[in-house]
């Protein structure tokens, strides 16, 4: 809970204090970082916005400026604190969390300093918009690799507000929004602010602001997707990589789901029980510790919330998500190129292992939010009739035969679970992830003239990020699940306790994936021929719908036609599902 350390010194004394740490100056600030390896320098906790506390709590981010009139030496040797959440220990979270961590090639000035600066990769973490932190992502191996392959690249990870502090909702909040305050989707506004800051200041770190690729996984990818669809990303990046975007649809700020989630949160803030003012005014007067208590007491974590649909995701608003995402058409060329992909068994991670009926499938389909968002009772009735019909057809398209379920390609093995487990996971994987990927590419990216590369990650040795796992899944039952590609992209397989053994095939695939990603950041194409020898990844076009199967035993281009009928069925009219 300590605010980022600000130390005031005269410039002449800093070297004796910090030794030979690398430095970067912006305005009156001098950031002193540290080396994380021979080739990589790190700057942590670099603020991009004013702390969103006191009067700025539940307000849009205010970009940080660096002219204070005093010389300030900023200790940037550590990650900044994480935004308030229940995943991270209490002493590592703070409301003063709007910071970046920056990893860059070491000794840039001695390097082949390219006049116009290095390509920049900006990471938005996943975690369902309720947990996550840039401190979970070590950029050292990725940047180190970028140096060795001759395309030195900067890695930046940005924090954004989460849960009730990032995505407030309910009637009072909606009233503030209606009165013109941009109080909705604060977490997404933080994403935008981070990208704006990078445009302004990344050159000071050796980066080229016109060569920014933004990438993210899960919620982080979803954030990128909506910023792209509503053109908010215009001028802030030229490329994007979306890993496993999908999940639950955005809801309106005052839907019954949204109101219930907000009311439950307010109910665990005793200080706000009897105030005469609005919820928002009351929250603005609380202490951070009282809010953290609220997160804990409201049990804002995957096990308590995600399984019943995530009530803290983005909301429909006026500018960032003005209507259901599937109805938005991005401007021509809003980005130049995109990589977008899914993992083979995305939804096994979210499928309750005790499922023994079609209940989960039914809940998922019938639980779709009102469509249109302000549906009248009769419109809602029509929608629910459609959804019942869709449910029937879905059960027919996904019969209860284990060899057709997820984890896919595991024959009739059921891992000791009821066969309905594989069936439910297959439906959620396709409805929640694959359908969105296919729709987004074919109906939104390609028509906007954005070149697309797509992938299917299927490595048999993949394991999920342990922090995102609830309960104790039966061994083998997750397949290549949600979040399991992250360690390959970051080159951190060997660092992670989840990964019991780094097989040679996994290690090689990880090298290839880092190369594809870094190549894309530098050239907007994954095939720059540098680094590992790897198969050519074909561009996805309307005439040639191909994607790259990323598998340590068999990385190869395949047709994007698997489960064509099933996935097309979900894409007939995504707005029925509120997407
Ligand atoms: C910078 O902060 C770290 C962690 O708080 C601390 O260990 C280190 O001594 C600090 N450096 C200086 C020069 O204060
Ligand atoms: C950096 O990359 C080189 C070449 O691949 C490798 O030998 C070295 O272990 C890497 N260092 C780090 C810290 O990742
Ligand atoms: C709020 O008001 C109710 C009813 O007047 C009362 O029972 C309750 O104790 C009050 N709660 C607090 C925290 O003051
Ligand atoms: C959810 O998980 C958290 C963290 O593992 C745990 O503290 C909490 O008790 C769990 N809550 C429920 C409702 O299972
Ligand atoms: C199915 O699961 C439910 C809930 O876990 C349980 O109560 C019920 O006994 C199970 N039914 C069968 C046939 O196993
Ligand atoms: C799986 O079981 C079904 C139904 O019992 C059967 O038709 C099919 O051949 C089996 N598939 C495999 C791969 O064993
Ligand atoms: C590699 O994967 C493709 C596509 O799934 C498949 O057709 C091919 O048989 C596989 N090759 C090997 C050697 O397993």
UniProtKB/TrEMBL annotation:
Q: What is its EC number?
A: 3.1.1.-
Identify the Gene3D superfamilies for this entry. alpha/beta hydrolase
Q: Which GO terms describe its molecular function?
A: hydrolase activity
This protein's name = Carboxylic ester hydrolase
Q: Does the keyword Hydrolase apply?
A: yes
| Organism, as annotated | Tetrapyrgos nigripes
Its keywords, alphabetically, are:
Hydrolase, Signal
> Source organism's superkingdom?
Eukaryota
Outline the extent of the Carboxylesterase type B domain: 36-569
Position of the signal peptide: 1-19
EC top class, as a word: hydrolase
The family assignment reads: Belongs to the type-B carboxylesterase/lipase family.
